[in-house]
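[Q] Does anyone have a clean structure-token version of this?
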Amino acid sequence: MNALEKREKAMEQMYFLASEMGFRVQSRRDRVLAQWVAELVGATDVEAYVAEIIDVRTTAAGDEGVIAKFLADVRAADRVLGEKELRAHMATLMTNEADADARRPLMPLR
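[A] Here you go.
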């Protein structure tokens, strides 16, 4: 393997690590946010609600699908939560989770 191939392989590895880290951060953010919204709407089974949000993330249009689900659930529970406030909370959680993730040791890809 020549130097150019090694460099290409290293760049691919870095790309996959960054993608994986982004996915993990987003997943943790969604979990924490789902727990927060579950408490806000008075959900009896928080873990089931978290699982429902994870399902929405995988089947719907990413953040927009999750936001729509949260807002619909909040409105159905006659609670007040604006989209701006929700997005701000999501951004804060994303930053906090990314910071926490940066402090964790990296696991090699398998």
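[Q] Thanks! Anything notable?
[A] The chain has a mean pLDDT of 83.
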